[in-house]
Amino acid sequence: MKVKNKIFSILILIFSLLYFGVNNVYATNEKVYLGGMTAGFSLYTRGATVVGLCDVITIDGISSPSKKAGIIVGDIILSIDNNDVNSAKDIENIVKSNKEVKINVDRNGENFTFNLVPAKDVSGQFKLGVFIRDCINGIGTVTYIKNDKFASLGHPVINNEGALLKIISGKMFPCYITSVIKGERGKAGELRGVFDRSCEMAKIENNCENGVYGTVCKNNFATSNLKEIEIGSAKIGDATIYSTIDGDKICSYRISIIKVDVENKQNKNFVVKITDKKLIDKTGGIVQGMSGSPIVQDGKLVGAITHVFINDPSRGFGIDICNMINN
User: Fold this and answer.
1) Residue spans of alpha helices (H) in 85-143
2) Catalytic choice (152, 291, 293, 314)
3) Per-residue pLDDT tens for 264-298?
């Protein structure tokens, strides 16, 4: 009997730890700094993506090395003669003569190798005849800052095939919003702005299912003027989002959380509806670039905007803040 009671007590203890542990995730007094500012993101990927093919003008006429070798737009150059390639500068540093080189590329997830003879252009430089994209640029919104770490977007940056974009590094810059393309039924709107590349706000370290993360540069990203806020859990009802849709001014806008599903695994824990007439008049609702806009309810940070409904830009999805923090 004593053994049975002991086992029963242990089971109660385990159950209690599990029960209270889960609740503590959603009822924490943890504090972070509230975001809401837009930022310019430059993400550097593994390899250099071929975005165009071109002819090389030589003293003997026109040459098309990459076309001739069989390289196509969309190929990702991974290495040349076993030297890693991640940028156009890497190619320039490797290709120093018209000696045949071996180029390894990723084409839709498969590896291919091509032999190519660089062409010497009229300026004396050796060229492959390709246009290269070595980083991906975009606008998004910072959700929060905690212990010099930032979290943003609430969803991953994906590649052309819809898969998670694998990055090796990145930088985040201040962004000044210059215009808005208003969202319409069947067509997503977007924020448009310019980056201040002279001021690096943060180093990007991770692109994952719950957003883009990194470390802030203290000299260029002061938290002293940001609001400190507790983490909370969402419920159906009125709430507020913080976004920047004009210049660099963070403003608050009224929304309604109309559905909560914390178990959703696709960053779609809430369905939200924009109820703020000022925001709807300006943007039509949720637009590209607003991803990561923090959602505040009852004075606590509960999530972030992640997606817009294409058939109704006044509605969209949000991610639960605990999924971002516990990433």
Assistant:
1) 88-94
2) 291
3) 777 899 999 999 999 999 999 999 999 999 999 99
pTM of the model: 0.81
Which among 75, 90, 134, 276 is annotated as catalytic?
A: 276
Q: Report the alpha-carbon distance of residue 34 to residue 156 in Å, rounded.
A: 20
Q: Under a CB-based contact definition with an 8 Å cutoff, are residues 318 and 305 in contact? A: yes
Residues in contact with 71: Cβ distance below 8 Å, sequence separation at least 6, in sequence order: 50, 53, 103, 105, 114, 116, 128, 130
CA–CA distance, 111 with 114 (Å, rounded to integer): 10
Give the tens place of pLDDT for each residue, 184-226: 998 999 999 999 998 999 999 999 999 999 999 988 887 778 8
Question: Which two tokens mark 258?
Answer: 């109309």
The single-letter code of the amino acid at 138 is G
- Phi then psi for residue 268, to 5 deg, are -125, 65
Q: Cα torsion at 287, 289, 292, 297 (round to 10°)?
A: -40
Rg (CA), the chain: 25
What whole-number distance in Å separates Cα of residue 173 and Cα of residue 117?
39
SS3 11: helix
CA dist., res. 321 & res. 269, Å (int): 9
Q: Identify the active-site residue in 66, 155, 243, 320.
A: 155
Write down the H helix ranges in the chain: 2-26, 65-69, 88-94, 277-283, 321-325
Rounded Cα–Cα distance for residues 26 and 28 (Å): 6
Structure tokens at 28: 């924490």
Contact 161, 32 (CB under 8 A): no
Residues 145-184 as b/e (b if ≥16 CB within 10 A, e otherwise) read: beeeebbbbbbbbeeeeeeebebeebbbbbbebeebbebe
* Token pair 């246009």 in the structure block, residue: 131
User: 177 φ, ψ to 5°?
Assistant: -75, 125
Task: Determine whether 155 is an active site residue.
Answer: yes
